[in-house]
Amino acid sequence: MDITQDSREISDMVSCLQPDEVRQLQRYHYNAAVESVVDSHAALRILRVRADQPGMRYTPGQFTLLGLGAWEPCASGGQPGIDNNPRRLLKRAYSFSSPILNRQGELVEAGTESIHEFYLALLPASQARPAGLTPRLFLLQPQSRLFLGPKPKGHYTTVGVGAADAVIFVATGVGEAPHNSMLADLLRRGHAGTIVSLVCTRYRRDQAYEPIHRQLERRFLNYRYLGLTTREVENVDPSHPQYIGKQYLQDVFSSGRIEEILGSRLDPAHTHVFLCGNSTMIGVPHQDAQGRRMYPTPKGLIEVLEAMGFWADEPQRRGNIHFEQFW
Q1: For all residues of the chain together, what is the average pLDDT?
Q2: Do residues 81 and 71 lie in contact, with contact meaning Cβ atoms separated by under 8 Å?
């Protein structure tokens, strides 16, 4: 179902619950309302939410829970109650994003907004992954009600980053969300070190914040942005005049291109790298039975960076590679 279809089509999905019971469940569970929606395209949207009780603060980079009842319809066409419990509240963690700039073109004070922004991608449902919360969030419109977690969580923040350190944000798709809030915070505090944002998506249309990043590049001499794609015609058609092949974030580092973007040598002693999104891109290692550090295949960025002298965050040791996996 296209999210632009009107309520008459949505109403074809009839809940097995009586309307009075649905209203009662909504009153009991929901504590926030949609302020506005920005649809980049049918499967990518920015959702802005206002809590009934104002005053929630978060540290840029953290996440909270969003929730809707299993009785609500799905944008993917799935029927309400597919989990056989139509009265259940479906909840999932989403990172706080940020508009970065307000309507006056000023940097927002990330973490203190009265309206909280989230960056959502709609993936097709399958038997292995039936329609859940996100397809329901894609039917919300201004004034729609939902659940918003009251307590931000997470340690994926810039705490420990020095004022002159280089900061490199690396994301796939909507993994950019927490980086937007951290970026706004660093720039607003006058961070002196170079800041780079790298984003890889299938298509350029999947980079909803790209115009804002271009504005920031023009305004801040220490900021750089690079958007990569993997499915555009120049990525997949060797006969295209501008053919460059598929672009991957790992290649930006292993090829040395990152130093061209930074304008300086990649120095692990004064650089923090933040990775968010696809687990294959991140490549979290584990220890085998003999205690040896084992990296996944294909090679992820943690392996690439650790070969350069970086070290990933671990429970016993704070590193300069910080990561947040989506799955």
Answers
A1: 91
A2: yes
- AA identity, residue 82: I
The tokens describing 151, both together, are 């307590």
| pTM metric for this prediction | 0.92
209 CB neighbour count, 10 Å cutoff: 24
Q: How confident is the model at residue 3 (pLDDT cuts 50, 70, 90)?
A: very low
Q: 3-state secondary structure string, the chain? A: CCCCCCHHHHCCCCCCCCHHHHHHHHHHHCCEEEEEEEEEECCEEEEEEEECCCCCCCCCCCEEEEEEECCCCCCCCCCCCCCCCCCCEEEEEEECECCCECCCCCECCCCCCCEEEEEEECCCCCCCCCCCHHHHHCCCCCCCEEEECCCCECCCCCCCCCCCCEEEEEEEHHHHHHHHHHHHHHHHCCCCCCEEEEEEECCHHHCCCHHHHHHHHHHCCCEEEEEEECCCHHHHCCCCCCCCCCCCHHHHHHCCHHHHHHCCCCCHHHEEEEEEECHHHHCCCEECCCCCEECCCCCCHHHHHHCCCCCECECCECCCEEEEECC
- Report which of 319, 276, 44 is spatially closest to residue 181, judged by C-alpha positions: 276
Residue range 156-180: mean pLDDT, rounded: 97
Q: What is the pLDDT of residue 126?
A: 58
- Is the pLDDT confidence value at 79 over 50? no
Contact 154, 61 (CB under 8 A): yes
Q: Kindly give the pairing relationship between strand 286-287 and strand 271-277.
A: unpaired
Query: When comparing pLDDT for 56 and 82, which is higher?
Result: 56
pLDDT at 6 over 70: no
The size of the chain, in residues, is 327
